[in-house]
Amino acid sequence: LRAHKMTHSGEKPFECEYCHAKFKYSDSLRKHIRSHTGEKPYECHFCKKKFKQKTSLTGHIRNHIGEKPFECEICKTKFSVKNALKVHQKTHTDGKLYECEICKVKLISKAILKTHTRIHSGVKPFECEICKFKFNYKSDLNSHIRIHTGDKPFDCEFCKAKFPSSSSLNDHQRIHTGEKPFECQFCEAKFSNRSNFIAHKRIHSAEKPFECDVCKVKFKTKPYLKSHMRIHSGEKLFECKLCESKFYVKSALTDHIQTHNGEKSFECELCDIKFSNQSNLLEHKTFCTEEKLFECVFCKAKFKFKSALIGHIRIHTEEKPFECNFCKVKFRHQSTLLTHKRIHTGEKPFECKLCGTKFGDRSNLLEHK
């Protein structure tokens, strides 16, 4: 009764000794003090993660057992914690949305908008004390630190494999359950994890958000850009143990290794010629069939190779993505840029074997011969 009367009187007799915040109930004060002391008395028996509040532990355990008791009345989507449902419900209402001034995306809370803007500003406030790598989000930092510590607190209930984050565990467990919750609205393809789903959608949209700082070529996924950047840096991470040849990408190394073992498992069904890798087979088939698979959407011209189509389309779009860093002249093709830059550098890699004259362009050498 005394506690109830405080709701009417506004009395807050319980004061925090650290910050002097006041509370109506001793239990509320006790929970608040943990924000100062860092005490986390509630431990998950699945992954040993600790929490300050019992409600946080309860919501966390639902991630392990897959329980989602909070259902949206409108679209029937289910959630493991009530707060997630509340945030989701705002997407159905005409409530206030917070718009990013840079990319115009609309978000459902001011806190989410603040976090989102770090993508544009480049602000990364969370730094790893070990390697000084910085992150936009604290959750990303926590997951990263486990790379150094080797800590993998999340166990798969099916095969006992361990993972450094709950998200990587969830992605993995779908291999066992067969669950594919991410469905493409264009072609109905389904995916077990969000990253593959997002990468797939760019096939339909032609979106290429990852741009090379050096040559401005754009890519659909960050791994594609990362592989491409090695061409500029000269970094070849993948080394053949048999002959020490090095490669920019793992797939090129895989193809190369097959040249050592003599295996030719890729056979042309038209002429029965066999190849050691699929890329050589595909290249062969375009000549074997004379088929032109890649068609220009502007003029219907057809090409054997996708790279030839891409170069051709730039005639229509007038796009010239390759810029000379000496004189700022732009070109449609990277090969044309490389030839042009030799005017500035004086490089002449093509030498006549008869008289020793050198040329910056292969065509000039052929004409000279």
From TrEMBL:
Annotated compartments: Nucleus
Keyword NADP attached: no
Keywords for the protein's UniProt record, in alphabetical order: DNA-binding, Metal-binding, Nucleus, Repeat, Transcription, Transcription regulation, Zinc, Zinc-finger
GO CC aspect terms: chromatin; nucleus
Domain (C2H2-type) ranges: 14-41, 42-69, 70-97, 98-125, 126-153, 154-181, 182-209, 210-237, 238-265, 266-293, 294-321, 322-349, 350-369
GO-annotated molecular function: chromatin binding; DNA-binding transcription factor activity, RNA polymerase II-specific; RNA polymerase II cis-regulatory region sequence-specific DNA binding; zinc ion binding
Biological process annotations from GO: epigenetic regulation of gene expression
Presence of the UniProt keyword DNA-binding in the record: yes
InterPro entries: Znf_C2H2_sf, Znf_C2H2_type
Similarity remark: Belongs to the krueppel C2H2-type zinc-finger protein family.
PANTHER family: FI01424P, ZINC FINGER AND SCAN DOMAIN-CONTAINING
Name recorded for this polypeptide: C2H2-type domain-containing protein
Species for this entry: Clastoptera arizonana (Arizona spittle bug)
Upper lineage: Eukaryota, Metazoa, Ecdysozoa, Arthropoda, Hexapoda
